[in-house]
Structure formats: C-alpha cells, structure tokens
Write a structure and sequence with these properties.
mainly beta, Ubiquitin-like (UB roll), 83 residues, five-stranded mixed beta sheet
Length: 83
C-alpha cells in the first residue's frame, strides 16, 4: 500500500534524490504499524521526535500498535529548539 510521507526541517535531507518539496510516497505492506513505517524510512529513530498521522499526534507508546492505512499521511519532525 502507499502512504504519503512528509519530512520537515532537517529530516528533509532523507528524502529521495529528485524529490520536490517535502513529500514522497512510502510503500508499505498491509497492516503496517506506525513504528514499522518509521523503521522502513531508514531515518535513525533518534532523529524523529514528532510523528503525526493524518493530522493527529501519535505518542511513542502508541506507535507499535497504531496501524497505517492506504492513502494515510505520515508527517515527521526532528527535535527542535527555539529561543
């Protein structure tokens, strides 16, 4: 199945070459979890802080149980500091 993957800030460095904007398509097996999808991105776990699935925050404890469906949008942000 295919889902949209949006990478923000420094995570956009992990987008495939030639990607325009911050969005790419991620191919996943049926019934994949958010945690499984994160692993398949190849992005080191310590670089991913916020995970948003279809506009809703997914806390770390729910990621192994939350299932991703075809057409979903998964958005990822790194840890950010402000000042």
């Amino acid at each position: 199945m295919q889902v949209q993957l949006k990478l923000f800030a420094t995570l956009s460095d992990h987008l495939p070459a030639g990607t325009e904007g911050n969005v790419t398509t991620l191919e996943l097996p049926e019934e994949e979890t958010v945690a499984g999808a994160l692993e398949r991105t190849g992005i080191p776990a310590e670089l991913i802080h916020l995970v948003i699935l279809n506009g809703v925050y997914v806390p770390p404890g729910e990621r192994p149980r939350r299932v991703v469906h075809p057409g979903d949008t998964l958005a990822l942000w790194p840890p950010v500091a402000g000042g």
